[in-house]
Amino acid sequence: MSKSIKIAAIIFLVLLLDQTIKIWVKTTLSYGEEFQILGLDWARIHFVENPGMAFGIEFGGGYGKLALSLFRIIAVLFLIYYIRQLLKGGAPFGLMVSFALILAGAFGNIIDSAFYGLIFSESTYHGDPAILFPPEGGYAGFLHGRVVDMFYFPLYEGTLPNWFPFWKGENVLFFRPVFNVADSAITTGVLSILIFQRSFFSNPKEEETTEIPNLATATDGLETPRIKNNPDTEISEAS
Predict the structure, then answer these.
(1) Are 39 and 24 in contact (CB under 8 A)?
(2) Is residue 122 part of a domain?
(3) CA 20 to 30 Å from 94, out of 103, 118, 142, 151?
(4) Residue 16 lies in a domain
(5) What CA–CA distance (Å, rounded) separates 182 from 169?
(6) Cβ distance 202 to 121 under 8 Å?
(7) Is residue 210 included in any domain, yes or no?
(8) How many domains does the chain have?
(9) What is the DSSP string of 74-143?
(10) Would you call 149 a catalytic residue per the annotation?
């Protein structure tokens, strides 16, 4: 199997997993509904929708949402081009996998932003789950859909001790953001590049060393030149 087919398979599998879970959550749960994963209190499925960036970060109103969607599309087109260049240039397979994960994650969230507003009904608190392809149409226009998030891992909730250097004595919740498979793919790809693939982007300059000859040995066997007096310039001591 060629590298290009493997990369395409990775992108497809990430997209398939991401969209399958999102559609299931959207059509099964009410907005804000949650349940524990394998009975663990710190691992939950918690359905929310994100109008902004990854991990619930907001990005300024309707125009900000449109700008973010267009930026994602441009980023995906650039990543497709860049991965093709890596394939042609024979880049390390691990590097191409990292960029494939980033591409798949970005594309997965683009699908939500571009089409979910058109094909789903509104999700409401304590209401019925959303309907796929509702007769009355979707809840938003093209590129104005919301990204579906569901993974929630509140690993620690409590009061920090007084000796803690930051926010001592305050109530904290870690890990607060709710995210999806696409966000996880992007994060994994970026961290993989930063940790394991940094050498690909570094271009260390080879130090040029100039060998300085040993003057003691370089002059071995060479006769010291004699300075002959010019008879025309000799000054007679005779008066």
Answers:
(1) no
(2) yes
(3) 151
(4) yes
(5) 35
(6) no
(7) no
(8) 1
(9) HHHHHHHHHHHHHHHHT--HHHHHHHHHHHHHHHHHHHIIIIIHHHBPPP-BTSPPP-BS-TT--SS-TT
(10) yes
Catalytic residue among 18, 112, 183, 220: 183
Amino acid identity, position 5 = I
Q: Cα-flanking dihedrals φ and ψ of residue 169, to 5°?
A: 80, 0
Q: Which two tokens stand for residue 103?
A: 């591409």
Catalytic residue among 41, 128, 149, 220: 149
Q: Which domain holds residue 77?
A: 3-201
pLDDT at 206: 43
Res 237: pLDDT: 47
**Burial of 170 from C-beta contacts in 10 A (0-12 / 13-18 / 19+):** exposed
Q: Return the higher-pLDDT residue of 51 and 21.
A: 21
Closest to 106 measured CA to CA, from 130, 80, 131, 126: 80
Q: Give a yes or no: residue 222 inside a domain.
A: no
At 25, which amino acid appears?
V
Hunting for tokens 């691992």 — which residue is that?
Answer: 43
pTM for the predicted model, two decimal places: 0.78
- Asked which of 28-37, 162-171, 214-223 is least confident by mean pLDDT, the reply is 214-223
Give the pairing type, strands 171-174 and 156-159: antiparallel
Sequential DSSP letters for 217-235: HHTTTPPPPP-PPPGGG--
Q: Which two tokens stand for residue 79?
A: 């990543």
